[in-house]
């Protein structure tokens, strides 16, 4: 038999609950909270006023970038779209390019769950629960990365609350690529594009200002000479360490100066250091001082010295078999010689000469590792080629530190997916750090050792440098924002 008191309490509780629900709904409607309204087909309808997002300053001057998603006429050189710079051939009927993002279509269940996550994310954002909203936006994108509306809303969230225009711009581009008819994504992209280009240009301007200060230092300055000698060893150490060499800096210097074996280290690690040393000397003593174009034979000669100690059979020769690098599949071995000739022609073209040296060097590095012409040593050759272009333009060789390896590979992965800009920003930041080492480090012993690391995905620390190209998903929120 049912207890009358229990039934009465239950009815009383439900009455209060219904009353509370009505009050909450009325309050939200009064405050104008932009909740997602679900239609019968489970399609979210949402609205966010333009005043809620950062505005592009009036008078912003930017270099316009060609738009369009279709392949252009094959005229040789390169052309640029929103998702990167692509190589074309003037001698062939095909276009060799890094691929556009291949986004798999999720199942119907995942798409519905993604829309549900978007619904709750916008609700949390409207109520000020920004940290929870951020996680839900990320979850929605992970579930359905091809949904143009989700990408647009996530980009707007990052732009408004994180002031991360660069990441928002990338999301808008992905949204336009997923649905070229999405007018909201198109308008957001057109609005932030000048600001993004202005940010990138300011990075180059800072480098140019530092280079003017760097050029005022005489070459015979004893402190600068010592720093250049130390930078040679640091460049060698970090380049081989990125590839997995376990030698410390002092051990590397001992191998170079004394030519003595280090106990507990493999012969291959010793030979990697000796090979990189030979390639660096060849580049500094021969290629940098020589005028004229860079030849394909120069690239082969650098590889011959890098790999000659460990693999003399394959050193200085193109690969003869297919290779696989993580999620990137390089061109077939039969296409490598023609692609390398095409790449060298582009690198020496008048169009490439008009680029900023850092941009040209970065693209040369990327195209080199994208083609992946050798069995081993492609990354080391790519970094040498990048620094060869920079040094010929008067810049010091850029040093990519081993503790930036994760971000370095992530930027290469982004470039393989079609967006080359994060990699250019990464190299620009590395060059800025390198110039600071030359200009402001107290002595050569402190070089490339005391500056903090760039922010990696998932890290959050006031001592880290926030790199615009990095994934800012876990960036700490400003003070005063609730979680």
TrEMBL record:
State the InterPro entries in the record. Answer: Fido, Fido-like_dom_sf, Fido_containing, TPR-like_helical_dom_sf, TPR_rpt
Cite the position(s) of the site with description Important for autoinhibition of adenylyltransferase activity: 243
Molecular functions per Gene Ontology: AMPylase activity; ATP binding
| Localisation per UniProt entry | Membrane
Catalytic residues, per the record, are 372
Q: Which PROSITE patterns match?
A: FIDO, TPR
> EC number(s) in its UniProt entry?
2.7.7.108
- What's its membrane topology? Single-pass membrane protein
Where are the membrane-spanning stretches? 20-40
In the record for this protein, the TPR repeats are positioned at 114-147
Q: Which Pfam families does this chain map to?
A: Fic
Report whether Zinc-finger shows up as a keyword of the record: no
Q: Which residue intervals define the domain Fido in the entry?
A: 294-429
Sorted alphabetically, the Gene Ontology cellular component annotations on this record are: membrane
What's in the keyword line of the UniProt record?
Answer: ATP-binding, Membrane, Nucleotide-binding, Nucleotidyltransferase, Repeat, TPR repeat, Transferase, Transmembrane, Transmembrane helix
- State which residues carry a glycan (glycosylated): 284
Q: Which reaction does it catalyse?
A: 3-O-(5'-adenylyl)-L-threonyl-[protein] + H2O = L-threonyl-[protein] + AMP + H(+); L-tyrosyl-[protein] + ATP = O-(5'-adenylyl)-L-tyrosyl-[protein] + diphosphate; L-threonyl-[protein] + ATP = 3-O-(5'-adenylyl)-L-threonyl-[protein] + diphosphate
The UniProt annotation places ATP binding at: 376-383, 408-409, 416
PANTHER family hit by this protein:
FIDO DOMAIN-CONTAINING PROTEIN DDB_G0283145, PROTEIN ADENYLYLTRANSFERASE FICD
Spell out the family assignment given in the record's similarity comment.
Belongs to the fic family.
What's the protein name?
Answer: protein adenylyltransferase
Q: Which organism is it from?
A: Hypsibius exemplaris
């Amino acid at each position: 038999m049912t207890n009358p008191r229990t039934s009465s309490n239950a009815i009383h509780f439900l009455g209060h609950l219904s009353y509370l629900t009505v009050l909450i709904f009325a309050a939200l409607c009064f405050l104008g909270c932009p909740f997602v309204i679900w239609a019968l087909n489970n399609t979210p309808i949402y609205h966010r006023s333009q005043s809620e997002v950062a505005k592009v300053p009036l008078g912003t001057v930017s270099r316009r970038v060609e738009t369009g998603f279709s392949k252009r006429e094959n005229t040789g050189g390169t052309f640029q779209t929103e998702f990167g710079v692509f190589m074309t051939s003037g001698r062939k009927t095909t276009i060799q390019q890094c691929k556009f993002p291949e986004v798999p279509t999720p199942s119907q269940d995942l798409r519905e769950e993604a829309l549900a996550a978007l619904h709750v994310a916008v609700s949390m954002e409207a109520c000020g629960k920004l940290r929870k909203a951020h996680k839900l936006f990320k979850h929605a994108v992970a579930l359905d990365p091809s949904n143009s509306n989700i990408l647009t809303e996530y980009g707007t969230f990052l732009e408004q609350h994180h002031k991360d225009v660069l990441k928002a711009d990338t999301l808008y581009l992905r949204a336009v690529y997923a649905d070229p008819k999405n007018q909201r994504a198109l308008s957001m992209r057109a609005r932030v594009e000048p600001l993004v280009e202005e940010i990138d240009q300011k990075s180059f301007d800072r480098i140019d200002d530092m280079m003017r200060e760097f050029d005022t230092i005489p070459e015979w300055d004893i402190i600068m000479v010592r720093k250049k000698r130390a930078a040679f060893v640091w460049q060698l150490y970090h380049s081989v360490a990125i590839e997995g060499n376990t030698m410390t800096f002092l051990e590397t210097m001992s191998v170079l100066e004394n030519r003595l074996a280090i106990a507990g280290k493999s012969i291959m690690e010793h030979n990697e250091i000796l090979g990189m040393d030979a390639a660096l000397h060849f580049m500094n003593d021969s290629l940098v001082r020589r005028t004229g174009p860079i030849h394909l034979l120069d690239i082969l000669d650098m590889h011959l010295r890098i790999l000659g100690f460990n693999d003399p059979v394959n050193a200085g020769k193109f690969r003869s078999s297919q290779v696989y690098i993580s999620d990137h599949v390089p061109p077939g071995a039969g296409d490598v010689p023609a692609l390398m000739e095409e790449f060298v022609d582009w690198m020496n073209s008048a169009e490439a000469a008009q680029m900023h040296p850092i941009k040209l060097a970065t693209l040369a590095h990327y195209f080199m590792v994208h083609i992946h012409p050798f069995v081993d040593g492609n990354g080391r050759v790519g970094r040498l080629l990048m620094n060869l272009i920079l040094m010929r333009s008067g810049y010091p060789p850029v040093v990519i530190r081993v503790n930036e390896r994760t971000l370095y590979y992530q930027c290469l992965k982004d470039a393989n997916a079609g967006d080359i800009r994060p990699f250019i920003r990464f190299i620009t930041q590395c060059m800025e750090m390198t110039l600071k080492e030359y200009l402001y480090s107290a002595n050569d012993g402190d070089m490339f050792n005391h500056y903090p690391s760039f922010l990696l995905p998932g890290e959050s620390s006031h001592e880290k440098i926030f790199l615009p190209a990095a994934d800012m998903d876990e960036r700490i929120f400003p003070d005063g924002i609730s979680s």
